[in-house]
Amino acid sequence: MPFTVNEFQDLLEMLRAQPAWKEALRRELLGEEMLMLPALVRDLVRAVEAMNQRLGLVEQRLENVEQRAAGVALGADAVDESPMLLSA
Hints:
Layout lengths: L7 H10 L1 H63 L7
């Protein structure tokens, strides 16, 4: 089916009317690497979300460790300040 394009708008109209042509042109212009980008970005978003969840768990665990360390430090200070009993 021959066709002519006199203006850029003609081309756009033809591509709107022929989705298969539009897809073929898109693949030709972008190439496979560019066409793979949306899937790669989706995978990256999922990976970052999973990493953020793990980071949240690590932060919670670190907070628990810090609280325990503070309790141990208070206990150590109390031992240091208490009088020593010597048995003879």
